[in-house]
Amino acid sequence: MAYLESQKYTPAEETEIQSWLSKASSVTPDNSSLLNEINNTLATRTVALGTKPSKADIALYESLAPLVKSWTPEQRTGEHGHPNIVRLVDFVQNSPFFGLDVKDKVEVNVEDIRYVKPIVDAKAEKERLKKEKAKAAAAAAAGGEQKTIVDRTKEAAQTVVEKAIEAKDKVVDAVAGEGADKPQKQKKEKKEKKGREPAPPPPPQVLSPCLIDLRVGHILKAIKHPEADSLYVSTIAMGDKPGTDDTTEVDGQVCRTVCSGLNGLIPLEEMQGRKVVVVCNLKPVKMRGIKSSAMVLAASPRIKEGEVDDHKGPVELVNPPADAKAGERVYFEGWAGEPEKVLNPKKKIWETFQPGFTTTADLEVAFDAGVVEALEGKSGLGKLVTESGGVCKVNSLAGAQVR
Fold first, then answer.
1. Which burial class, exposed, middle or buried, applies to 269 when counting CB atoms under 10 A from its CB (0-12, 13-18, 19+)?
2. Which member of 200, 249, 285, 323 has the greatest number of CB atoms within 10 A?
3. Number of Cβ within a 10 Å radius of residue 320
């Protein structure tokens, strides 16, 4: 509770808290419309205010926990269930933010997911609509096809007649001797075609970590990879436009599928509904049969010279500011610029700059130019910040590597 008491809220947030308190007091087992409303709203939020804990979450927990406890697995995560309510209840009763001493917690099996909304492949859907439109256009034109053929036949016949008349006139003129008197038309001089000017050479690539497309991501859900014990498979919204390659639409948001080697290092429940920082322009790669289209940034202790990286952790996810929005650009101070659309693996851009990704004594994520060989002569730390100015941090690992 000490954490909540130290929190400050804007007037707009206070108004929203009161609205949630009213909803919490109106929750009953038979008020299905309100339960559906709460579940749908929480689909894109970690807590009632989005990412900022408040007393509204505790009020919701007190009203909803008894219901969730009595629900069957189908009522919890089935096709017509309320999985987002279940997630909130589990988060509030276990998170240190709320400091609740719950003796009889609601048992939640995070792996018991009875229904997953079918994923719509945005690219395939676009192609399907395109084909339907083409069929409709063909059907509309079918009615006028016969008329078009007749018109073409008439035009061809008229052309034959005109050419026959022209040939007859030439013969008559030749017999009458008129053809010799008529001045011959001068042939137009052909203009010399100017050769195409060679395209200007592409501008030299800026050598900067800004070439890496870093954004705020919102994990809507995460599950264990069915074929790899060390991997999680997460559905993450990161600000892509509808129809972007390798995206799907989930709960009204454009998302990518991301595989991360965090299973066994970070509890699965801590991956649910949280904000992270993602690398968005790495070339997609299949990981044990599932295409991964981005990478989640995490910190781990820096490997000392002579040591071997055993990948045993500890590992901490990079935390963007609580009020950051999914898709918000993230960059290192002093290194702002436009990222590449897709990083060319042959240019080793990620491998060049990642060694400079680190954390400070204040647990802020930063870029240390001095350790990047390609930036010889440059030095200094640039904090990892969002476009709105917030600094990205980790929980406890200072002097760590971030990758």
1. middle
2. 249
3. 32
pLDDT for 291-350, tens place per residue? 999 999 999 999 888 787 777 889 999 999 999 999 999 999 999 999 999 999 999 999
Residues near 25 by beta carbon (within 8 Å), at least 6 away in sequence: 59, 63
CB 13, CB 49: distance < 8 Å: yes
Query: Residue 282: what residue type?
Result: L
Does an H or E element contain 41, and which? helix 32-41
Please say whether the beta carbons of 390 and 323 come within 8 A.
yes
Q: Which of 177, 202, 2 is nearest to 96 (CA)?
A: 2
Of 316, 322, 300, residue with least CA distance to 391: 322
Q: How far apart are CA 23 and CA 334, in angstroms?
A: 46
DSSP letter at 137?
H
Between CA 268 and CA 278 the distance in angstroms is 18
42, 85, 255, 274, 286 from 119: Cα distances, Å: 19, 21, 10, 21, 18
In sign, the C-alpha dihedral spanning 134, 136, 137, 142 is: positive
Per-residue pLDDT reduced to its tens digit, 277-304:
999 999 999 999 999 999 999 999 998 8
